[in-house]
Amino acid sequence: MVCAACGINKKESNDPWAGGSGSSDGSGSSAAKRVSDMDTSSDNLKKMIQNIVDNLDKPGPYEAPDQSKGYDDAKPHWGVASLSGEITETERFSWTGGRGVELRGLIDRVHELAKDPKLDGMLLRVSDLAISLPDAAELRAALADFRAAGKHLACHAEVASNTTYVLMTSCERIGLAPLGEIVLSGPTAMPVHLKGLLDRVGVTADFMHVGAYKGAAEPLTRDAPSPEMVETLDAILTRRYGTIVAWVAAGRGVPADQVKTLIDTAMFPAPDALAAKLVDQVATWESFREGVTGGAWTRMPLKKKDDPITAMKKVAEFVGMMPMARPTEPHVAVVYAVGDVVDGDGDGILGARERIASHTLTGALDMLAEDASVKAVVLRIDSGGGSALASELIWNSVHALNAKKPVIVSMSDVAASGGYYIAAGATRIFALEDTLTGSIGVVGGKLAIGGALARVGVTTHPMGKGKRATMFARLDGWTEDEKAAIFKSMDATYQVFVSRVAEGRHKKPEEIQPIAQGRVWTGEKALELGLVDELGGLSAAIAYARTQGNVPDSAPLETYPPRPTLRDVVASFGGVQMPFGLSTQMTDLAQALSPQAAKVLEHTLWQLVDFQRTTIQAAFVFPVVLD
Which residue in 389, 391, 388 sits closest to 399, CA to CA? Predict the structure, then answer.
C-alpha cells in the first residue's frame, strides 16, 4: 500500500522509497505516462516531507535563533553545537524512546564536520555532560583530529568539573559564564558497601572467590574495603590523576607542577578561573559566541539528522515493513558487547544493548563467521563480566571466528573478568590508558534470604535424598562441606579462565597466574604486562581491522546490535523485579548523594540477582563511584 502511494515499481527497484524507473509494461505511451506520473508523485512526496521536517526543526517564535543574522551557507562560517547528556557505547531503547548519545556516532560526526570546506570552526556549548574518562579520551582524540584538519575549536560552559573540564581543554579557547565555576578537584573513588543494608533486611551474602585480589564480594560481606581493594583503587586513581594533569598541562600550556597546585585548590569561581588560565574569557554565551565566530554561525547538531527518505526507511524497518539492510560488499563488522554477561537468550536485540546474553551474541558471531563479505570483526567491549559459563561460550565463538578472519578487540571503560575472558581469543586487543581490565578470577555465592522471609512469617522446609540434595533449595548459608564442593568447581573454572588467557596471549598458564588472581589493571599497566597489545580507541581498532581485512576506508561498517524493531521493543516488556524492595530503597537514598551513586548501586543490586540464577561467575562487581 505504501509502495503504491509512493509510485514504486517493485520489480524494478530494491529501494521501496525510491521513485519509479520508467520501464514500459507493454501498454505504450499510456504506461510511460503512468510511470512519469509516479515519478512526479514520489518527488512531490519527498518535497512535502522535507518541508515538514525543515519546519519542525526551526526554532519557535520565542526561542533563540539557529543562525546569525545574514548567515550565508555559501560563505565561511562557524558551526555551533550543544554537547550535553550521557555519552554511551550504544543508545539504550525503551518504549518511550532512546537514551544516551552514542560515542561512535559523535566521533564520526566530528570527523565529518572536519571535512566541510565552508566550516571555519566549531563552538561547543558544554552542559550537563556525563562522560567517563576513557570515553573522554576517545572524543578528545577526535577533537584533536578536527583541529589538525585546520579548523578552529572553542568551548563555553556555565559550570564544568573534572572530566568535563579536562575534555574542554581540547579547545583552543574556553569561555565561562559570569558567576560560573570550574571545579578541578582531581579523581575520586567512593566504594559503597551494602552489607549493612543486607543485614537490615535479613539477607546474608554467602560468597567465596578464587584469586587474592578478587574482591567482587567485598561490598556484600565487608563493611569497608580490604587492603587489596585499597591498593587496586590507589593504582586506578594514580593513573587517572596523571591523565588529568597531562591533559590540562597540554591543553592550557601550564606546567604539570602548576596543574597539581590548581588541583589542590579545586574550586575556581569565574574570576579565579580566568586568573589561573583555566579559561580565556568570562562572558555570557551570546557574547562569547559573537566574539569567537565573528557573527557568522549556524546551529550544527552533533547527532547527524537523517534526510526524510532515510528517516522513512528507518520507520519502515522499525515496524517490519521492510527488512533491515546489511552491507553486501567486503566490509568490517563492529560488534558491541555491553553490560553484564548472562546465560541464555537475554532480552533479544533490545536487551543486547545493555546486557551480553550468551545465546544472542554467539549466534551473531557465528553468523558473521560464515558471511564471506565480513572480512574482519571489531569486538567493542564495555563489561565487567558475569556468568562464567556464558563467558566460556562466547570465548568459543570468538575463538572460532578468529580462526576464519581477524577479530580485533576494542576495550572501552571496563573489560574485566568475564569482559576480559571474551576478549582473550582475539587477534589483537586495544585498550585506553584508563580502561579497567584484567580481573582474571572467579567469584561464587548466593544471597541467603531465609532471614528476610522469616521476618514476614515465611519459613521453608526443604527435603531431599542425597548428602547435598538441598544445598540450592535451602535459603540459609552453605555448610562447610557444600562450600568445599562449590569452591572446587570455582577453582576448575578459574584454571580454564587462566588457560584461555594464556592461549590468547601466547604464554604459559604459570606466566599468567601472577598477573591474574582477580587483580584489576589499568590499560596502561595491562599493556606493560602483555594483557593488551596496543593503546588506542575504537577508531584505531577499526582502522587496524580494515588493514587486516584488506577493506578500504570507503567501505561501510556493519554494526551489531542493529537498530531495534517494534518486535524487539514489545519483547522487552516484563523482566525480573528486584527482591525485597532493595532497588527502591537504595537508589532513592543514593540519588540524594549523586546520580552516579544511584546508577552504580542499582547495577550492583542487579548483579546480585544474577547470582541467584548463576552461582559461579567471572564477574567484576565494582560498586565504586569513580569521578
Answer: 391
Best CA proximity match to 414, nearest among 126, 188, 626: 626
Residue 491 backbone zone (phi > 0: left; psi -120 to 50: alpha; other: beta): alpha
Q: Delimit the domains of the chain by residue range.
A: 2-56, 77-191+224-299
Q: In angstroms, rounded to a whole number, what is the distance separating the alpha carbons of residues 342 and 317?
A: 28
Residue 238 exposure: Cα atoms within 13 Å on the Cβ side: 10
Residue spans of alpha helices (H) in 371-429: 388-402, 418-421
pLDDT confidence bin for 382, thresholds 50/70/90: very high
CATH H-level superfamily of 77-191+224-299: 2-enoyl-CoA Hydratase; Chain A, domain 1 (3.90.226.10)
Spatial neighbors of 510 by CB under 8 A, at least 6 apart, are none
pLDDT of the residue at 14: 42
Contact 105, 557 (CB under 8 A): no
Q: What is the CA radius of gyration of the chain?
A: 27
Please list the residues that pair with 94 across neighbouring strands: 97
The 8-class DSSP code of residue 411 comes to E
Q: For residue range 557-609, what is the model confidence (pLDDT) as tens digits?
A: 999 988 765 555 554 444 444 454 555 555 555 555 677 777 777 777 778 77
Q: What is the mean pLDDT of residues 530-544?
A: 97
Nearest CA among 246, 245, 303 for reference residue 107: 303
- The per-residue pLDDT for range 146-180, each reduced to its tens digit, is 999 999 999 999 999 999 999 999 999 999 999 99
Residues 113-133 have a mean pLDDT of: 95
**For helices 103-114 and 133-148, angle between their N-to-C axes, nearest 10 degrees:** 10
The number of helices, as runs of H, and strands, as runs of E, in the chain is 24, 26
